[in-house]
Amino acid sequence: MAGTVKARDPLRISSLANPRVKGVVKLRRRPHRDASGLMLIEGYREIRRAVTAGHPLTELFFCPALFQGSNEPPLIEECRQAGTALRDCSEAVFRKMAYRDRPEGLLALAPKIHTPLNELRLPHDALVVVAESIEKPGNLGTILRTADGAGAHAVLVCDQRTDVCNPNVVRASIGTLFCVPVVQASRDDTAAWLDRRGLQLCATTPHAEMPYSQADLRPATAIILGTEQYGLSSFWLDRADIRVRIPMQGQADSLNVAAAATILLYEALRQRTTD
Prior knowledge:
The protein has ten helices and twelve strands. By secondary structure, it is an alpha/beta fold. The model is unreliable at 1-7 (pLDDT under 50).
């Protein structure tokens, strides 16, 4: 259902050849995101969470013909009041910029997420995720969504193979990328940082003897997850205080990394909230 937008003279874009349209499309590729320092955020929930988290938006492109309900106009007005430049787009223009098959009529440009490791602050009983060399944006986004749901305090992405600001990470996380502190760092810097703060390192590997349910995850803990294909590197396995496995009853010897993250994080939540 289309809505009306009360905005102060938003720029109208109706030409597919408009340079802004071409610039948005280029941001699907990492080199252009890195060069510009910008990322794409598409969809109401994702943009709503970015705004609520205080992540600034530089531009907001909207197409009322594609709105899904009545929530979009108030969000657009909120962005206008915050100083975001508004771009009213024709449906053809918006569909060209959108990376979703079924666009919702909202797409924003925002500064890329950048949280230095030394600026991250954690509580004494911190629960963090260390994601080593995750390759698939969908898995990384799902890990972020799970970390938010389970109350993790941070996600540390080590030796990244996918950009945390990839549009598909934003989409798979449904915007929780902006709700959980996310840090990108090398494994050496991450390991040194965790050691200085005394976090217990819990490595997940199918070769461990201890089932995950027997591990004590109540102290300050970093749950460390490895690549989809090869699992954790020896770098982390050798440093782990405890190694745990998720019991498998079928033919597969391991779970998808995002599924493993869900099981471990919610086990930690269960332990921390059970009297």
